[in-house]
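Record type: monomer structure entry
Structure origin: computed from sequence
Chain ID: A
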Amino acid sequence: MTNQNVQPIFILPEGSQRTLGKDAQRNNIMAAKLVAETVRTTLGPKGMDKMIVDSLGDVTVTNDGVTILEEMNIEHPSAKMIVEVAKTQENEIGDGTTTAVVLAGEFLKNAEELIEKDVHPAVISRGYRLAEVKAQEILNGMAEKISENNEEVLNKIAKTAMTGKGAEYSKDTLAILSVKAVKMVIENGFVDKDNIKIEKRTGGSVDDSELIKGIVIDKERLSASMPRVVENAKIVLLDREIEIKKTEIDANIQIKTPDQMQAFLDQEEKMLQDMVVRITSSGASVLLCQKGIDDVAIHFLAKKGIYAIRRVSDSDMKKIAKATGAKVVNNLKDLSENDLGFAGTVEERKVGDEEFTYIMDCKNPKAVTLLIRGGTEHVTNEIERAVTDAVGDVTAALKTGMVVAGAGSPETELAMSLRKYANSLSGREQLAVQAFADAMEVIPRTLVENAGLDPIDTLTDVKAAHSKKQKWAGIDVFTGKVMDAWKKGVIEPLKIKTQAVSSAAEVAVMVLRIDDVIQSTGKGGGAPEMPPGGMGGMGGMPMM
């Protein structure tokens, strides 16, 4: 006999929300697609910009994918996963963030169509993984080799990175500076882009931007009595204060007469003077201190003609050490001439309204500064982002030694090769690989649409060229014709493509495998309402 009075069992706190099955998948996919749609119009040389106004009224104008997504404060959990794709791409290469996000959105859009046809998400995920592995193999097979001696190709990579951004009209100048900067900091065939400091200053024009063979820091000398310019500077980097240390335990000094007071002060002064003597006796003419310098010590340093700066950041100290060959010292007793670095000139300069210290003309700098100038703050910020992309692309190209042409040519070639691969498979995974291949064409299609061209006619022409073994056939967005992207100088690091495909495929698989979304804020708390496909901060629809 069944019990008609069985009480329902609650395993989740009151106020929790739960979305199951296809509803959960649809919501997650919708959120991901909205993120992709938001940045999609920024892709390519004719991509548009976004204006983002934060809660304080600060305005950001950019077409940099990761900057847009970070500034939007997205709240939807699945949408946040797509933003992580952009951040990964930014950290690994510094460019290609929009490509990665648009691909992830398209992978999920095509997967949704298969789910509606009752293809299981696990099957789609398996097919996507097969396709991603094959895509990496195909991309590596089509790439061309380069080295640091291919300066012409490196310049083209930098120009391609800046095309379509605010720096485009000065890309020839900035590309040369970016490539020179990267080549200067190469050590044992390895490039650490952290050794290229990009400093931006409003005022002047983009053409006033320059490459400093050394480091520029936003600090001024500590006294007007110190020299403004030091030629053939010998630099000491000090990681300790030039101050009288306080005792670690509480101590009282009893002074009963004015003579004792004067003697105490004289002793403190002598200790500071001894520190300065140790610095000057090493032959140093410039002191960069990571911590504080006492006012009395500043007086003695100025009398000795030493150019001194205090509270230099740790990151700047490391870069200056790389640029000048100096060693960071934390004990003045051990300071010797061998610890000093060299710079042709150390100079205080006024840029705009601020004073800067230029450490220039270092002999063999392994850290340099790109000083970016622009007419307004918004312009300068956008140029800085463009130059960061250019430096990242050149670095990524040298790291792997492999590059591909752009203009949608590798994606078109990849789509055609993946379709052939799909035909060799049996079972429903074949459908997933075909969906993956179709998704790759979103990049050339977006380039065409953003240029205001007819996507059907243009893509048909590009595919026809690829079927004739023209692997670098891409879209000239300015004429609407098919072009040889390699000959036209549209070149990108292979790493941009491989990383974008890898990250986008991984996040698509992760989202597809979610069939249950449980939102809980704990006992007694109401869960925040998740819009059915929208995102916090976006009003459930694409921005602009």
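Annotation 1: The mean pLDDT is 78.
Annotation 2: Residues 19-143+405-519 form a domain with the GROEL; domain 1 fold (CATH 1.10.560.10).
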